[in-house]
Amino acid sequence: MQSNENIPLTMEKLTALKGIGRKSANVIIRETNSPAEGIIGDLHVIRVAPRIGLCTETKDGNKVEKQLMQILPKNIWNEIGMAISFLGREICRPTNPKCESCPINNHCQYNSSN
After folding, report:
1. Would the CA dihedral through 86, 87, 92, 97 be positive or negative?
2. What is the mean pLDDT of the chain?
3. Which residues contact 107 (CB under 8 A, 6 or more apart)?
4. Residue 78: pLDDT above 90?
5. In angstroms, what CA-CA distances link 67 with 14, 90, 94?
6. What is the dihedral of CA 27, 14, 69, 97, to 10 degrees?
7. pTM for this entry
């Protein structure tokens, strides 16, 4: 990746740019290995985090992010959003989730077989 000192790497400076919200800023911060200032809250995280009991149901990514930041340790913020997102893409699908092959199905509130 090419370095460019003109690219801001803080939440405040990134979100001040037109078209950059918290979700995109969190992705940029994560990809540049900068210290986490939040948790990626994409549509998969918005769907999966309530299913697994980490937050209340909401369609607002910023609210989901805020709830997750309150309960999860800061040292995992850069990775946990992507981990939940990948879980949502591959296993915890919007329809026909693959609960039987989910690595956390024993702890999931959504899994009907619990």
Report:
1. positive
2. 92
3. 52, 53
4. yes
5. 21, 23, 21
6. -30
7. 0.87
